[in-house]
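Sequence in, structure out.
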Amino acid sequence: MTMPSPTWLADLPHSRLLAEFSMWSADLIHLADDLKRIESHADVLHIDVADGHFAPALLFFPDLAARLRKASTLPIHVHLMVADAVLHDQVDQFAEAGADLISVHAENGNAGEALTRIKDHGLASGVVLRVETPVAASRPFLDRIDFLTLLGTAIGVKGQGLDPSAADRLREAGRYISETGRRVVLAADGGIRENTVPLLRSAGAETVVMGSLAFGAEDLAARIRWLHAL
């Protein structure tokens, strides 16, 4: 099993915007080829998991994460969009599959227990907020997580425009993180376009979850240089 450095989280650069590549936007017929193409450009691989209940899509599964783990040295971030009834089982399955970071939703009633379970596996943990959830809902978790991800579009649906509140929400989250004095990476997910990334960056995003902006780029190296320069 190919693994990133044990210190991967501490090694993430603080000074530049990070590129988190959403495997949902990869060529799913030629996933291995796409993984090779992006390996030297991505900072983190992002795997969305949805059960068709908590979010409308049906997305990815532990065996896929395990195959990606064997093929890549990049950190793997699993974003769980699943109902409370299966949340703990999904944490266990993706931990065993080789995830480095697992994020759960603040809207899950058992999110706190799930975060403890993630830490018990020795993994980094994160919380995600739907676009309609008040940012203050993240505050009870900030003393125990490593990533905070704010969705900028409706959950589990591709191709939407960025919600007008996204930048202000990032700024609010940044203030809450600053109050803790801890290193919590602030991520933006959804509505990631060439015209929105500078706005999200200026609002405090430290990483953006890239879909077509990365996988559809004619010159991926140039696209990532542009991103890192922001």
